[in-house]
Structure formats: structure tokens, C-alpha cells
Design brief:
Layout lengths: L4 E7 L3 H12 L2 E2 L3 E3 L4 E7 L4 E7 L5 H8 L4 E9 L2 H10 L11 E2 L5 E5 L9 E5 L1
Parallel strand pairs: 1-5, 6-9
Antiparallel strand pairs: 1-6, 2-4, 3-4, 4-5, 7-8, 8-9
Amino acid sequence: MIGRLNHVAIAVRDLNAAVATYKNALGAKVTDATPQPEHGVTVVFVELPNTKIEFLEPLGENSPIAKFLERNPDGGIHHLCYEVDDILAARDQLKAQGARVLGDGNPKIGAHGKPVLFLHPKDFLGTLTELEQV
């Protein structure tokens, strides 16, 4: 079921500072910032040869990333995203095995314009896990 690692998401307080760090210190190629109001974040992707790093900055006070940053003031890894071929089949298989899908259980469109789901961190070694259909 699980495919390649699509991205590692890092919650940041200051998107511009995060981008500057990766561009200046690491020479990274970084996408333009894209607001994702339906998810309460603004995102930027650092493009690597084998995967991506996603920076998540809160978009508004009710952003789930704002809540994450309250608990983790310096920011940090927020989630891992894995690719799957069929997100509904993956969801159904995981639910049958007792995994909890967050939200209403239905895929939403993610930052790449593809269906995504999030899985409860308590079911995956304390790590929030995102599945993205490719």
C-alpha cells in the first residue's frame, strides 16, 4: 500500500526566515508561498531530488499549525506524507485494521491538488501521517 515518501512537513513561525535559511545555508530550490485557506496554512516546498520538505506557516489564529506552535514554540516536524495509489482503498484497509482517520474520514484536496487523508499519530508511533493519492 505505502509508496514513496512524498514530503516531510515542518511547522514554522516565519515562512520567510525558513525559506532564507534553506536557500542561503543549503542552496535549496524553494517554491513560491501558496496560501491554503481550507487547511489554515501557507505552504512552501523545498524541492529535493528524491522528495520534498514542506514548510507550514499558520494562516490565521484557528490554524492547526498555530495550535502546534503553541505546544512547540520553536516549530518542528509536523507530519510525514506517503504516496498511495488508491486513497479510498488505503483508507478502508487501514480502518479495517483499527487505524483512525482524522476529520470526517473523507479525502480533502491537499497542497499538490491531490486527495489527502491524515491518520491519528497514536496509531503510527506518535507521528501524524498524511496519505496522498498519486
